[in-house]
Design a protein that fits this description.
The structure is a single chain. The chain has one domain: 3-Layer(aba) Sandwich (Rossmann fold), CATH 3.40.50. Helices cover 43% and strands 21% of the residues. The chain has helices at 26-37, 51-60, 75-88, 104-112, 125-140, and strands spanning 5-6, 10-11, 13-17, 41-44, 65-70, 95-100, 115-119. The longest helix has 16 residues, at 125-140. It is globular. The chain starts with a strand and ends with a helix.
């Protein structure tokens, strides 16, 4: 298995989304481009997505990873809602990542609700790609 694909069938598919009213997407675009450059197929949904829209896109696009970028402070509401909706739609094997302005005291709660990792401002994009590949490798074994 190559490091940027799942089996020989297809590339790793990542959905990058901006839930809620947050209007800044520079970081999400930087991460999306870096993951694409790392050999992954990236779907960027754009600004102002509802949890329902994100979950529907995750299912329709058959993604392996959902990356949510939240700067608005609504992460404790929006992220668990997206996770719940994706799982309700039958996608149990999705890795959830969160980026943006997440207070350190909220990280543990997000992880308890199903987030694999939180990447804050200035995170190394190569490490994000490596993390995804490692987690997918663990799921495959």
């Amino acid at each position: 298995m190559t490091s940027d694909s799942i089996g020989a069938e297809r590339k790793v598919r990542v959905l990058v989304a901006k839930p809620g009213l947050d209007g800044h997407d520079r970081g999400a675009k930087v991460v999306a481009r870096a993951l694409r450059d790392a050999g992954m197929e990236v779907i960027y949904t754009g600004l102002h997505q509802t949890p329902e829209q994100i979950a529907e896109a995750a299912v329709q696009e058959d993604v392996d990873v959902v990356g949510l970028s939240v700067l608005s402070g609504a992460h404790t509401t929006l992220v668990p809602r997206v996770i719940k909706l994706v799982k309700e739609k039958g996608k149990e094997d999705v890795i959830f990542l969160v980026g943006g302005i997440i207070p350190p005291e909220d990280v543990a709660a997000l992880k308890e609700q199903g987030v694999a990792e939180v990447f804050g401002p200035g995170s190394n994009t190569e490490k994000i790609a490596e993390f995804i590949k490692q987690k997918l490798g663990e799921l495959a074994n």
